[in-house]
Amino acid sequence: MTSSGARPRAAVAGMPIAHSLSPVLHRAAYRALGFDWDYTAVECDESALGDLIARVRTEPGWVGLSLTMPLKTSVLAFLDRIDATAAAVGAVNTVVVERDAVDSEDVDTDGPGANADRPLINGVRSVSGPSGGVESRTGAARRHFGPVHLAGFNTDVTGTAHAVTAVLGNGTPPRNPLVLGAGGTARAALAALAGLGAERVDLLARRPPAAAPLVAVGAALGLAVTVHRWDTSGTGSSVGCPDPAGLLGAADVVLATAPAGATDDLARRPWPASTALVELLYHPWPTRLAAAAQAAGAPVAGGLVVLAAQAAGQVRLFTGAEVDLDLLLDAGEAVLAAR
């Protein structure tokens, strides 16, 4: 139970949302951990986000939200604090409800939100005790819970980093990564690569001017991003477009963040066995690109690996507990096999 006595609850929000695997993964996690928690899917677009956030702030039981499109950037305006990685990426996929623990004699003196700038201890904001020391929110009997604060994180980054590590091997930083696509998912891909020690990245974009924000994201992360125009028509290399074969051959890992069908032309080209692939799509599986890389003997990680790893990160943020990643993968695969 939460401090209010209500059953803990969280949800994934976005539009469309019916296809989301998040309820399956989170429910499997909480069952395995022995937590009697509720996790649902909420259809919500940008116009309804403010109402949802108000519910999370005021209704008992809420521990957090998972966010998908189109809410990952619009939610920034509603948060009290944002994790450094999420701020650099400019997108949040996880909202954590934090409640200050306040000693009764401190309430009138310090006022609401007086501990908002205190550090987190094991995912919980700390507060000043009567003696000036730091105490967690599970302290003395006179402790009660004060104002709600909403904190934003981005576990898409850690999920993507997990997949890259899986295909490259532990301890092997990306040397010549290639990102396909310049949408929102590419932001998390850049942050994952930077976090793993990459210094530069090539990026293929159908409309290079649209990739300008990604260059800025890369610069903020210490990552040099070189944008190339990407011809996805399948008619061959166009003027101003590099030969994709050269970029693929030079890459040690490719992160495909493009929508379904956009990489089909690349799938018809020879895939280098030495070039690992992280394909962010997961259904239907394998994609043509993933099948081509697998046929060439290259290491491949699919979008379900990323999804399960980012869900495990959300569970950690919500509960402070670790969940077996294979358990989440098994749960996701079982549902996808039935679709």
From TrEMBL:
EC number(s) stated in the UniProt entry for this protein: 1.1.1.25
The superkingdom of the source organism is Bacteria
GO (cellular component) term, any one: cytosol
- Keyword annotations: Amino-acid biosynthesis, Aromatic amino acid biosynthesis, Oxidoreductase
Which GO molecular function, any one, fits this protein according to its record? NADP binding
Q: In which pathway does it act?
A: Metabolic intermediate biosynthesis; chorismate biosynthesis; chorismate from D-erythrose 4-phosphate and phosphoenolpyruvate: step 4/7
Q: Which residues form the Shikimate dehydrogenase substrate binding N-terminal domain?
A: 12-95
Question: Is Transmembrane helix among the key words of this record?
Answer: no
DNA repair: present as a keyword of the record?
A: no
Q: Name one GO biological process term.
A: aromatic amino acid family biosynthetic process
Q: Which PANTHER family match?
A: BIFUNCTIONAL 3-DEHYDROQUINATE DEHYDRATASE_SHIKIMATE DEHYDROGENASE, CHLOROPLASTIC (PTHR21089:SF1), SHIKIMATE DEHYDROGENASE (PTHR21089)
Please report the name of this protein according to its UniProt entry: Shikimate dehydrogenase
Species annotation: Candidatus Protofrankia californiensis
